[in-house]
Amino acid sequence: MLIITYSACLHDQMGIPFSFGFLTTAAAYDFVAPTKEIQWLVSVFAGIIFSLIVYRFTAIFSSRLVAGYRKLTGAVKVEWNNRGFSTFHALFAAFTSLYLLILSDLFKDGSQEKLVVNRSSAFSNSVLSFSTGYFLTDLAFVIWNFPALGGLEYVLHHGLSLFSIIQSLLIGQAQIYILMVLFTESTTPFVNLRWYLDTAGLKSSKLYIWNGIALFFGWLVARIFLFIFLFTHMWTHFDEVKQVVPLGFYSLLAVPSVLAVMNLFWFWKIAKGMVKTISKAKHSK
């Protein structure tokens, strides 16, 4: 009784949220519920830490299991390891986004009274915060090693991604569209495998050819067709989209459009590369 009374006083006087957990006959335990901001910071920090851990593990495992890794230059090793945690985040982003968009009830019609653009959950907030940690880490690597890990287009891509995710977290809106864009990271493992095989001198291997074909169709689905669906969804739900705060509203119109143009440019390069690789394979037979 004393514990409950004291907690209630703290809540009234300081505005600290408390939740009462398991009550037993012997004692009462109450647990402090962290605020959303603390949960976001913890998830961002987790994204940074996991990225650095995977970076280090990639280096350790590659030095033991991949022939020729030790002979790579320092700059190439950095990119090799960087693509390790890039692949890790891509898998995380793809599966969690797919779950939230398709498998969960969060954005399904009729599942909530809230407008679809206003829906979010503790899990979706954690996913976006974790990805924020990854993008911050990767952007730091890109800038520190510029332009070895990517040119201005990578800085622009990561900058727009960070801006969109952080804004969505702060305003609590448009998460459905941020998650759609985040799902496009599902093509990253194919991009990274292509680079690994090229660096390892396996451009003529069947795996390189099949990965190129998978990258072409994966990009077509995840970064072309999905963006068409995103713009169509925004158009059919435009009355709801207009309810987003002004900065978020104009960002929804501008950022996906810029990313769509970048995706089309990269798709054109992927298609050219695939055709070139298949032609070389046919001539070598």
Provide an overview of this structure.
This protein is mainly alpha-helical. The protein is about 75% helix and about 5% strand. The protein has ten helices and two strands; from the N terminus they run αββααααααααα. It has helices spanning about 1-15, 35-65, 75-105, 120-145, 150-170, 175-185, 190-200, 205-235, 240, 245-285; strands spanning about 20-25, 30. A two-stranded antiparallel sheet has the order 1-2. The radius of gyration is 23 Å and the shape is globular. The protein starts with a helix and ends with a helix.
Shape estimate:
globular
Order of helices and strands: HEEHHHHHHHHH
Query: What profile does the largest beta sheet have?
Result: 2 strands, antiparallel
| Portion in helices | over 70%
What average pLDDT do the residues reach?
88
